[in-house]
Amino acid sequence: MTQTYFTGFMPRWIGPCLALGLILFAPAAFAQTAASSAAQAAPAVQSSLNASAVYSGIEEWGKMRAALSRLQGVSVSISAISIDGALILFRYEGTPSDLQAILARAGLDLRLDAAGAVVKVATP
Fold first, then answer.
1. DSSP letter at 24?
2. Burial class of residue 110 in the structure, from the number of CB atoms within 10 Å of its CB (0-12 exposed, 13-18 middle, 19+ buried)
3. What string of H, E and C letters represents the secondary structure of 73-89?
C-alpha cells in the first residue's frame, strides 16, 4: 500500500476528511508518494580516498597546501609528509569523479589508475 503525503496549498478541511476516510482520492497537485519523498531525503554516500601528493619542492607544496585548505565539502588529513611528497586522505560525498571535479576547481589534478591516486598542482 502506498502512503500519500500532501504538500503545497491544501484547504484545511481536506486533511481531517482524508484521515476519516471521507475522501477516497486527492488531486495530483496535492499528492506526493512516500517513495519519492524518501528518494529526495536519501543521504549522500560518504566516501574516502587515499592519495599520494607529488610536488617538486617547498614552493609547490605551499601552493598545494593552500589549495587543499580552500576545499569545500572535502575533509583532508595529511598522514605523512616528505621533501617531495605526502600521503593524504580525502573524505567527501559522492564519487571519485566528483572529487576530481572539486580538486580541479581548486587548481589540483587528481589521477586515478591501477597503482593508486596521485594529486599534483595542475599545470596551466
1. S
2. buried
3. CEEEEEEEECCCEEEEE
Q: Are 67 and 108 in contact (CB under 8 A)?
A: yes
Residue type for position 80:
A
Beta carbons of 11 and 23 less than 8 angstroms apart: no
Q: Report yes or no on whether pTM surpasses 0.70.
A: no
Q: What's the pLDDT tens digit per position in 8-39?
A: 444 555 555 555 555 444 444 444 444 455 45
Phi-psi region for residue 67, left (φ > 0), alpha (ψ -120 to 50) or beta? alpha
- Stated length of the chain: 124
- Closest to 55 (Cα-Cα) out of 76, 75, 80, 82: 82
